[in-house]
Amino acid sequence: MVLCVGMLMIVLDATIVNVALPKIQGDLGFSQSSLAWVVNAYLISFGGLLLLAGRLGDLLGRRDVFLTGLVLFTGASLACGLADSQTMLVVARFVQGVGGALTSAVILGMIVTMFPEPGEQAKAIGVYSFVASAGGSIGLLAGGAITQAINWHWIFIVNLPIAVLTGTLALRYLRRDGGLGFARGADLPGAGLIVAALMMGVYAIVEASNYGWASAHTLGFGAGAVALLVGFIIREARAANPLVPLRIFRSRNLSGANAIQALMVAGMYGMFFLGALYLQKVLGFDSLEVGLAFIPVTAIIGTLSLGFSAKLNMRFGARATLIPGLLAVAAGLALFSHITVDGSYWSGVLPAMVLVGIGAGLSFPSLMSLAMSGVRPEEAGLASGLVNTTLQVGGALGLAVLATLSTNRTTTLVASGEGTHAALTSGYQLAFLVGAGLLAAAVAVAVLVLRSGPPAAEAAAVEAAGAEPVFSSEAA
What we know:
Blueprint: H1 2-28, H2 32-35, H3 37-60, H4 62-82, H5 86-105, H6 107-114, H7 118-149, H8 154-157, H9 159-173, H10 188-211, H11 216-238, H12 252-282, H13 287-293, H14 295-316, H15 318-336, H16 345-371, H17 380-415, H18 420-449, H19 456-464
Helix pairs in contact: 1-3, 1-5, 1-7, 1-9, 3-4, 3-5, 3-10, 3-17, 4-5, 4-9, 6-7, 6-17, 7-13, 7-14, 7-16, 10-11, 10-17, 12-15, 12-16, 12-17, 12-18, 14-15, 14-16, 15-16, 15-18, 17-18
């Protein structure tokens, strides 16, 4: 519970600021283009450091890394809340991203090592999955409510009491783990390469909407990120004590689950972002009504993640639970692609949200279990950081692509004389249809790559008989 409250704070902060952006722009005088850096500064440091932060947890001790990140995040939140200039807010958001990466990257690794028994682990991962997947929509609601009731400064200041409580309880309840020590993986050149590659890649993605996907700026930074990533892989293959042992990717379930997660969140992020725009710009919802409109998705994900999905994983295995969940998300996005200019929330939006909620509630716990399957205890932090990295980078890339496709479609239609609302709706329809295609690709990866394993009940019997300890329902 302590870890998940910490995770909720990080997830909320990633979305709570979106609703307040117009107020921030008016108070601090941001231009439309510079305003994006209130979000991008956080995304670049957060996405760039997740993998390294997870490995640091293995080397230095996960509780210490968690607490260090919490301190950084809290201090940066206070600075954001007190910011009276553009520079102060953007720098504080960058530091906030560093703290968020250190805190969140080790949480899943701590959970799977604290709960090695498959049944308990399935329940714990269910709680984590709910927080990680549904917290964003709670952030939209909280951001609208706080901004309207008080002012935008409080969306950051509200983090302080939560962080102090989380840190106090963490010191009391979380056992301190010593870590492997830097001698087992102090690959500083490798660390520099992966951080630079991820930060450059995230920067290229988030700025693509301003420069265009085919621009020299986007292609140059994208090529630089790929080159650094290739250099990192070569370095890790030759290093005596690599930062990221490449053998971890030999697990088909780990590699496949991360690929599926990247495709899934790429499609789903489009639903949350573009769906909110559709409700505001076409149906006329205000920011608070948008937050309320997404509550059914959160409620369904929570209901399934916190109990039902864990039971299905125990009974049938993670792979068998995951595939129907992915199909449900794909069906929901396909249904979303049929929205109309004069549509209704109750008949045109809610049914699609229900399908996406059911699918996500089934899929996320299964993906977490598969992604951590067969991971050695001393590499749990690395695997946890990898899960969070694919979640953030996949979501950022997917959102950037879908938003660009939607905008281009809308711009073309407006130029040809189409009405604004009709052009916007057509752009959103295209994005949702492409999102459904990404989910179809995720289903194909699940069928072709993932391996079936014994349900957790059977795995528990194997473990009780004296086999090696297992860390998920898929490992035997």
